[in-house]
């Protein structure tokens, strides 16, 4: 009797395990258009007019295509393929954290890692960009920052954390934990800044080295694509919070916050990636010299008079009126008598968007050549698509539709967190040889709330347990 019940339950659990695991391991095939690179001669029936049978066929067609590895090799090999992940915001574990939350945080790393794995293997991107807010809080210590970076590298991106372990060994505190050596980083930063400000011809040895050319991997022995980590307010803080400590540990463990990489510069179709720390563009700032350095970066970028298309990667979206996206404009400052940090009175505390004038200045500096481009941002979690139309020599206006000959699209990438369904943004760049311009398209590939992933994993364990228990009843 008991044996019979257990056996029935085992069949039931097996069935659920198979269904849920097939789902989580083939989820992009349920949205094949959104989860594939844009192809210039694509011939897929559009979603609305498909019957159920049509949908099933489409699903199996896509799964089969995946088996043959055909999603990655889209028909045009000269296209540019970028995956963008919005605001993962991984949380920490503290001595008082209840066990359930600990388990949740642990599982969440692998949930995010599952999304990355699926999309990376399916699509073989050239660039993977994480749109800032890698972590959930800027108010954490150096050791915790290092520990989260280790989780970010090894659990989500499945890479060897040896490089950051080495950095830890070079920067130990008394208890053998990582401690950012901010006085060393700060001395170097200020030395470079004053060298550039004081000398007509700056000492070549002392520069921020913002520029790169034709970089396809930071570490060609290990990987054939780029991972770009963007600074978010939860990683380094808004300009009213950002300290030398914040900047040092981000540079130590994630790399530079401002740089450009130019590609195919001597061809008919040059393009570039610009990574911008736009948290440090406005003030009042705690360390105004950081803001100065960011503007220095933008001016150097502008002086290159680059004659191609630009992909701008940054965290905080550009100014737009209320109603276009989930977040409206909202900028806050620390009040007088803000305790215990009274020294922060009047400093920039938070912003949903850059201010209108800074938005115009940045757009003018980066998109001066009038070539089409694309901006990817994070920050608001809900996602949004807007167009910045150049309305006069120096003013850009955000709208839903294209309203000017010169325009740039801004995509606020919807968050990859479980609450927002674990999204991945896909950017395809295609060079149109008739118009001789790059064309950029974006699509959002959703997964599912984290409970679905949990259910698939737990039901696998339950199934194994139930079948094994049959050996004993
Ligand atoms: C970071 O990880 C190390 C090694 O596991 C551990 O000793 C340390 O306490 C952790 N730091 C924090 C702040 O939890
Ligand atoms: C920081 O770096 C400087 C210069 O390399 C070194 O002299 C100093 O001991 C380091 N400080 C700490 C706390 O490791
Ligand atoms: C971004 O971070 C990952 C993990 O630390 C690292 O592998 C990668 O090289 C970093 N990117 C840059 C540009 O430093
Ligand atoms: C492009 O041309 C310039 C000027 O001729 C040269 O300095 C540069 O090295 C070239 N870049 C590449 C990637 O070939
Ligand atoms: C810039 O690119 C356009 C094609 O988009 C080309 O016609 C023009 O000659 C280029 N200008 C320079 C200065 O190279």
UniProtKB/TrEMBL annotation:
Annotated transmembrane regions: 9-27
GO term, biological process aspect, one: GPI anchor biosynthetic process
Alphabetical keyword list: Membrane, Transmembrane, Transmembrane helix
GO cellular component, one term: membrane
Name assigned to this protein: Ted1p
Natural source organism: Saccharomyces cerevisiae x Saccharomyces kudriavzevii (strain VIN7)
Taxonomic lineage from the root: Eukaryota, Fungi, Dikarya, Ascomycota, Saccharomycotina
């Amino acid at each position: 009797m008991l044996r019979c019940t257990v056996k029935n339950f085992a069949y039931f659990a097996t069935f659920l395990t198979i269904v849920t695991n097939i789902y989580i391991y083939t989820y992009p095939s349920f949205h094949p258009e959104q989860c594939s690179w844009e192809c210039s001669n694509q011939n897929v029936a559009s979603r609305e007019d498909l019957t159920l049978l049509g949908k099933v066929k489409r699903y199996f067609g896509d799964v089969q295509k995946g088996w043959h590895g055909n999603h990655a090799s889209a028909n045009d090999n000269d296209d540019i393929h970028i995956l963008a992940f919005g605001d993962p915001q991984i949380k920490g574990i503290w001595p008082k954290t209840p066990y359930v939350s600990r388990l949740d945080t642990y599982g969440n790393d692998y949930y995010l890692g599952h999304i990355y794995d699926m999309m990376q293997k399916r699509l073989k991107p050239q660039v993977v960009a994480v749109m800032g807010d890698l972590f959930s809080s800027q108010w954490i210590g150096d050791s915790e920052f290092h520990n989260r970076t280790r989780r970010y590298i090894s659990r989500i991106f499945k890479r060897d954390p040896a490089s950051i372990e080495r950095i830890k060994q070079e920067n130990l505190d008394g208890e053998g934990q990582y401690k950012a050596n901010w006085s060393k980083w700060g001395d170097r930063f200020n030395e470079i800044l004053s060298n550039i400000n004081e000398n007509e011809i700056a000492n070549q040895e002392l520069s921020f080295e913002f520029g790169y050319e034709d970089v396809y991997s930071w570490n060609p022995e290990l990987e054939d694509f780029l991972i770009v980590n963007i600074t978010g307010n939860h990683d380094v803080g808004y300009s009213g919070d950002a300290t030398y400590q914040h900047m040092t540990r981000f540079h130590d463990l994630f790399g530079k916050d401002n740089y450009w990489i130019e590609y195919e510069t001597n061809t008919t179709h040059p393009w570039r990636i610009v990574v911008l720390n736009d948290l440090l563009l406005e003030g009042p700032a705690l360390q105004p010299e950081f803001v100065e350095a960011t503007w220095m970066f933008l001016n150097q970028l502008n002086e290159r008079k680059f004659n191609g298309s630009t992909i701008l990667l940054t965290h905080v979206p550009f100014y737009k009126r209320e109603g276009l996206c989930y977040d409206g404009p909202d900028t806050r400052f620390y009040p007088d008598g803000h305790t215990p940090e009274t020294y922060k009175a009047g400093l920039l505390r938070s912003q949903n968007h850059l201010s209108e004038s800074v938005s115009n200045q940045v757009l003018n500096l980066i998109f001066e050549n009038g070539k089409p481009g694309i901006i990817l941002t994070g920050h608001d979690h809900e996602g949004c698509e807007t167009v910045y139309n150049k309305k006069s020599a120096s003013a850009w206006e955000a709208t839903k539709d294209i309203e000017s000959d010169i325009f740039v699209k801004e995509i606020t990438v919807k968050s990859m967190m479980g609450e927002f369904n674990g999204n991945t943004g896909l950017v395809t760049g295609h060079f149109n040889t008739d118009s001789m311009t790059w064309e950029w398209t974006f699509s959002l590939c959703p997964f599912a709330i984290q409970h679905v992933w949990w259910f698939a994993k737990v039901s696998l364990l339950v199934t194994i347990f139930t079948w094994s228990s049959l050996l004993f009843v």
